[in-house]
């Protein structure tokens, strides 16, 4: 039983950063932006979260710094893709590479270490124990005692669903993606909507990054996002942006991640760590077929 | 009736020297349906775009209820109560009717939550008020084009627009849908709204409008009461009574049929048919002109001849050989083609003049390459470019300059030079003199007539009736995708062709 609970909790933990980044990605997806910079936003968030937590001995400041670090990348993306109208894909690739370089450089300059920075001074984000629920046998160990960010991700899923489908912002957000000229002629600047969607994406990726370096583990390693941003992109595309679908797909990827670890007992680890990426490739394959079918109809 | 909007001495010049509007003054009154009619390029849409803030006038003033106004963008016009429905419908297909209507001015509750109930109710109320017969919850992609047009109008009414401009609204409608639109427009007028109706369908205009303003070549001819107008008098005002240039054609010595298109149908997927049973024959030494108001199928005819569109049925033969399914390169061995789209289809703006001149030639003529077509023969290219430059009098510094450095007229001459020197049996000329000045037009016309006298078969499409009458031996009239008339130039008149273009052959 403990193995299964461990596997489920591992799945949830692995799914959380993907879910948060994908929720950010879904906002930009609806706004009609081909945003692939979640990877860079998440990595930057992870680094600055450690920085904030270490210097101020507070996980709250850590999250704050993480969010600001991710917003920094989002702002550069906005500057290039919205203001200068540079190709979104090129901007995204450039920013993802930039985030790796920036965090590695700062890691070596500020903390004078190579590879990884770990220190007892880094305060990690606490786990939340919910009274009563905690005492439920089996389920209590899953529903309670998760990291704070896991609950935030859950709330974010509900909030983003509401935001996209029920709010005024959501109506305009989707309009920006479906037909931005129509939105512009309706008197709403589609660029302003895109700006906001990217900032929100930055915030969510900041939480995802903070969770990586202050929740999942308590340290920062070079390139620690390790493709999770790309997987979140695949999740968004796979379910055409539906937030609930994203949550399920994230759990699936989380499961693949956990499965990879589990399989390491019998298979070489190089193969098992491929599992999430193979899943991503398959998702993109399905997407391309579906897209072709859609085009054939219209 | 009080005047709502007065447009005073509006002048609009498109660079470098195309006068789109020449001192046009119009007054629109409250609660009238005011039609603005004219041929294509008469300036109808430009005039309305200036009023709506989509284009800037070079001079002239606009008054709204006596005080001068100036709109920099459509949003400002809308907040002053002026709205425009364009020919192309701008909605979000994935959204429902009510979502489309409220987009941008959404009624909201706490935290920016859309008040769905209130929104739907308001939209429903408006639909009922104008008897639009729309389901507010239907998705726009699932409703008809006519219904989408209503949604566009509704969107403006929702924003309290009292002055509505409609740009050729019936062009997207089927004949059955038109009376319904007219009823709705009349109802809006009776509610005190002013409607400006841009059209070139005279019958519709006479049926619907209270007053009519006629534009011709950027000038206002007159504003008249509809009750005082007839179809004939309007057509004369629109087309004008100018004397046709004396024809410089010699009598035709026509030979064998070169180009033969028969039984050609084309329909755009899931839409109404665009071309129906088109028959076109062109003989050696003959120029056949196609007249028609833009958007009646000309573009499709051209694209089908060039192999860019596949017809549903029908056959194309050139010199007795079947070309219906020929590749574009095979076609180009027999067809010279001047596209009306100079910048995209006619030339490559970033390439040099000589590169543009040898396009197609380099595929068909071995002279321009060596080593079995692997390497271009620069010296031959230079010689040929100079020949074309001389015989077409292209003003340029060097054939190695980019073609975009030339003026529009010289670009067109370069393209004509390339195509006419292909020396193919059949020539397809789509608006060959668009954008040229009078002198160049003269020059091009002489070249075209020379080609005809050299026994080429020529199919000419032109929006300029005078050009058609000057060059063509026969004129075909294309109306709503059908050829409604096949006339010998000597036996017809600009008035007759103009009438057929607008009304088809039914009357």
What does this structure look like?
The complex is a heterodimer of chains A (298) and B (507). Chain A is an all-alpha fold. Chain A has helices spanning 2-30, 38-56, 59-83, 88-111, 139-143, 148-166, 168-178, 180-185, 190-216, 228-238, 243-263, 269-272, 275-297; strands at 116-117, 127-128, 146-147, 220-221. Chain A is built from 13 helices and 4 strands. In chain A, helix 6 packs antiparallel against helix 9 (190-216) and helix 10 crosses helix 11 (243-263). With 507 residues, chain B is α/β, with parallel strands linked by helices. Chain B folds into 3 domains: 3-239, Rossmann fold (3-Layer(aba) Sandwich), CATH 3.40.50; 246-334 and 424-507, P-loop containing nucleotide triphosphate hydrolases (Rossmann fold), CATH 3.40.50; 343-422, no CATH class. The radius of gyration of chain B is 26 Å and the shape is elongated. The interface between A and B is medium-sized, with 18 and 21 residues.
CATH architectural grouping of chain A: Orthogonal Bundle
| CATH architecture identity of the largest domain in chain B | 3-Layer(aba) Sandwich
Order of strands across the main sheet of chain B:
6-7-8-3-9-10
Approximately what portion of the residues of chain B adopt beta-strand conformation? 25-35%
The CATH H-level superfamily of the largest domain in chain B is: P-loop containing nucleotide triphosphate hydrolases
Low-confidence stretches of chain A: none
Q: Please work out how many helical segments of chain B DSSP would assign.
A: 18
Shape of chain A: globular
* Total separate domains of chain B: 3
N- and C-termini, Cα separation of chain A: 51 Å
CATH topology of the largest domain in chain B: Rossmann fold
Name of the CATH class of chain A: Mainly Alpha
Radius of gyration of chain A: 19 Å
Largest contact between protein chains?
A-B, 18 and 21 residues
CATH class membership of the largest domain in chain B: Alpha Beta
- Alpha-beta classification of chain A: mainly alpha
Strand content of chain A: under 5%
What is the subunit organization of this protein? heterodimer
Question: Quick check: average pLDDT of chain A?
Answer: 89
């Amino acid at each position: 039983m403990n193995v299964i609970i461990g596997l489920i909790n591992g799945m949830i933990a692995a799914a959380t950063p993907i879910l948060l980044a994908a929720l950010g990605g879904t906002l930009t997806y609806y706004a009609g932006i081909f945003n692939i910079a979640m990877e860079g936003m998440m990595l930057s968030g992870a680094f600055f979260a450690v920085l904030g937590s270490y210097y101020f001995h507070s996980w709250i400041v850590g999250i704050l710094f993480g969010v600001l670090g991710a917003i920094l990348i989002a702002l550069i993306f906005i500057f290039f893709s919205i203001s200068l109208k540079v190709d979104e894909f090129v901007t995204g690739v450039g920013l993802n590479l930039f985030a790796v370089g920036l965090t590695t450089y700062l890691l070596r300059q500020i903390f004078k270490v190579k590879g990884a920075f770990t220190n007892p001074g880094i305060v990690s984000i606490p786990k939340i124990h919910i009274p009563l629920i905690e005492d439920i046998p089996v389920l209590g160990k899953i529903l309670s005692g998760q990291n704070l960010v896991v609950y935030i991700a859950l709330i974010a899923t509900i909030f983003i669903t509401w935001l996209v489908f029920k709010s005024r912002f959501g109506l305009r957000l989707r309009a920006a993606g479906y037909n931005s000229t129509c939105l512009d002629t309706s008197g709403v600047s589609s660029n302003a909507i895109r700006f906001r969607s990217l900032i929100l994406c930055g915030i969510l990726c900041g939480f995802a990054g903070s969770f990586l370096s202050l929740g999942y583990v308590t340290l920062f390693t070079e390139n620690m996002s390790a493709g999770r941003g790309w997987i979140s992109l695949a999740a968004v595309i796979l379910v055409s942006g539906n937030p609930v679908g994203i949550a399920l797909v994230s759990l699936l990827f989380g499961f693949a991640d956990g499965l990879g670890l589990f399989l390491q007992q019998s298979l070489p680890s190089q193969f098992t760590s491929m599992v999430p990426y193979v899943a991503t490739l398959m998702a993109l394959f399905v997407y391309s077929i579906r897209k072709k079918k859609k085009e054939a109809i219209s | 009736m009080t005047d709502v909007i007065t447009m005073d001495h509006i002048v609009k010049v498109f660079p470098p020297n195309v006068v789109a509007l020449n001192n046009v003054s119009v007054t629109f009154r409250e609660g009238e349906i005011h039609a603005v009619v004219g041929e294509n390029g008469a300036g109808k849409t430009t005039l309305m775009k200036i009023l709506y803030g989509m284009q800037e006038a070079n001079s002239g003033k606009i008054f709204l209820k006596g005080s001068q106004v100036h709109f920099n963008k459509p949003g400002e016009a809308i907040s002053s109560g002026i709205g425009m429905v364009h020919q192309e419908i701008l909605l979000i297909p994935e959204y429902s009717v009510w979502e489309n209507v409220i987009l941008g001015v959404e009624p909201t509750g706490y935290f920016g939550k859309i008040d769905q109930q209130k929104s739907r109710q308001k939209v429903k109320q408006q639909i009922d008020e104008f008897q639009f017969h729309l389901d507010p919850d239907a998705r726009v992609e699932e409703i008809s084009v006519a219904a989408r047009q209503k949604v566009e109008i509704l969107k403006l009414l929702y924003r309290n627009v009292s002055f509505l401009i409609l740009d050729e609204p019936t062009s997207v409608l089927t004949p059955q849908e038109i009376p319904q639109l007219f009823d709705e427009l009349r109802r809006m007028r009776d509610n005190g709204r002013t409607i400006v109706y841009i059209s070139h369908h005279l019958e519709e205009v006479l049926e619907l409008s209270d007053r009519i303003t006629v534009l011709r070549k950027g000038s206002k001819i007159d504003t008249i009461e509809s009750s005082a107008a007839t179809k004939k008098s309007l057509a004369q005002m629109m087309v004008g009574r100018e004397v046709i240039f004396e024809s410089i054609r010699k009598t035709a010595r026509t030979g064998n049929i070169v180009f033969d298109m028969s039984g050609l149908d084309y329909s755009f997927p899931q839409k109404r048919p665009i071309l129906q049973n088109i028959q076109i024959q062109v003989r050696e030494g003959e120029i056949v002109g196609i007249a028609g108001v833009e958007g009646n199928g000309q573009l499709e005819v051209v694209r089908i001849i060039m192999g860019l569109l596949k017809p549903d049925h029908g056959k194309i033969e050139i010199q007795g050989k079947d070309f219906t399914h020929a590749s574009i390169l095979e076609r180009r061995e027999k067809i010279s083609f001047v596209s009306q789209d100079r910048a995209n289809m006619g030339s490559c703006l970033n390439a040099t003049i000589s590169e543009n001149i040898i396009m197609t030639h380099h595929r068909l003529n071995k002279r321009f390459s060596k080593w079995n077509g692997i390497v271009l023969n620069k010296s031959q290219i230079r010689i040929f470019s100079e020949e074309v430059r001389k015989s077409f009098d292209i003003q340029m510094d060097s054939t190695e300059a980019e073609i975009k450095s030339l003026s529009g007229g010289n670009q067109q001459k370069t393209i004509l030079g390339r195509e006419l020197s292909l020396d193919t049996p059949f020539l397809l000329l789509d608006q060959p003199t668009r954008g040229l000045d009078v002198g160049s037009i003269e020059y091009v016309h002489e070249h075209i007539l020379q080609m005809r006298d050299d026994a080429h078969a020529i199919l000419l499409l032109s929006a300029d009736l005078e050009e058609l009458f000057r060059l063509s031996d026969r004129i075909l009239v294309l109306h709503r995708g059908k050829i409604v008339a096949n006339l010998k130039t000597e036996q017809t008149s600009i008035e007759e062709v103009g009438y057929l273009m607008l009304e088809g052959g039914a009357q």
